[in-house]
Amino acid sequence: MGFADQFWQLTVDGLMVGSLYAVIALGYTLVYGVLQLINFAHSEVFMLGAFGGLFAARGLLPGGATPSGPASVGLVAAGLAVGAACGAAAAFILERVAYRPLRRRSAPRLAYLISAIGASLFAVNLAGKEFGRQNVPVPDLFTNGTLFHVFGAQVSTQTVVVLGAAVVMLVLLDRLVARTRLGQGIRAVAQDADTAVLMGVNVERVIILTFVIGGLLAGAGGFLYAMTFNASYNMGFVPGVKAFTAAVLGGIGNVRGAMLGGILLGLVESYGGYVFQASYKDVIAFLVLVGILMVRPSGLLGVRLGRAA
Amino acid sequence: MLLELADVEVSYGAIPALRGVRLEVAEGEIVTLLGANGAGKTTTLRSISGLLRPRRGEIYLDGRPLSSIPAHTLVGLGVSHVPEGRRVFAGMTVRENLLMGAYHDRRHVREGTERVFTLFPRLAERASQLGGTLSGGEQQMLAIGRALMSRPRLMLLDEPSMGLAPRIIQTIFEVIVEINRAGVAVLLVEQNAVQALRIAHRGYVLENGQVALTGSGADLLADDRVRQAYLGEDIPTG
Fold first, then answer.
1. Is this structure's pTM higher than 0.90?
2. Hey, how many other C-beta atoms are within 10 angstroms of the C-beta on A240?
3. B108 reaches A (C-beta below 8 A)
């Protein structure tokens, strides 16, 4: 079958993965916005959230047949909630332990990077030791099958759950940044931290909450990812790098840019993997990044967090 | 006394910027702070706002020492600061910038916004425009309007006339007087010494991080040293 025949199927698959990239990318872009810092340990926040959600769902799962109906909805919701909570807790601790002490000492940029890599290695190896070094599947929480067709493309229950949850999170985050007092504080700190202080913004509090919000999204995203591709101690690395790429692609620091970058990256990978070979997916993703940055060094939508809302 | 600086010393690393500044602002006053570039004017305002911490000395608001008070809570105590270079949030609209001014207390946003739009009708026309797209004069109006949103008792203004056309400077100074008449004390840092002294009740001249001269606006305006240093007049010596 040719590309044209498969186009809509590839689009559906690409949107699903891309929406997850977008959810994770927001964590990178928000933290970059307020601290001008790439939080390279964000991929481990994602991984820890995935395990948290996985254990919660497994613990609540009744024995026997695959659940259905309200039970399925409840289990997915519980997995998302616990995943988000674990991600938030991990991000909070990360900020306290790996970044805040450096901020207090006005450490140079390089110190943050080294601290992030250290925290990341620690979390990965702790997870490897505690959860084992093989893949851990998420048990079936619902019967997966084709729900309906869009232009001939099959849309599975899995796709609806993942894409639906991701889109809800993206919309909520967008509204939070644009409309709430906290969102205004985040944008003010991102644009001009000193002036934000003069307006009465508690910058330390905004920084912590920014990490927590990024952690909520990454944790819930981790659970969705694990539901689709299994969990493992090193599951954070590849999607983490992809999400970082997505954030840069859209314009790091820009909320809508991260969303756009994630979706685009998912689609490009999906199309490219079909046209060339599945194993070229990552190559294509990064070629796109390099190509776009050569033309637009500040990303597709530029770098202002404030413009995003 | 509303604001009092008692022998305030501030340094940037090893370099001293303020060397024992004494200064007072009473309720309802306009006080201007003059001085050459690097004399310590901006440093003084930033210390009052808590963005810089004195190495020695103390700053009092209503007799209460500010050294242990977090900078972001100062706006809640009635101090608002219009920073040097306006520092409007470029990626926020005019309306959002004003909302930032009321960040600590959202109860009076509507009246506050109306008041600012009455004071500066130009801002009402540009309400949905991004701060970064405004002209310099409009940005200064927005910065002052934003500072009014918190209903301050003391307003710190850092070179509001910088880089503006004479006609707009005139408007800005008129508004400062109007704000003061409404009961707000003003500490005004200016390069534009004549205009500042004309509207000020009192003034201080800073030199190398110390108060070199102080007096009423009229006295300083008549002072030979002030005229020579800041008004560019040649006074024959002896």
1. yes
2. 26
3. no
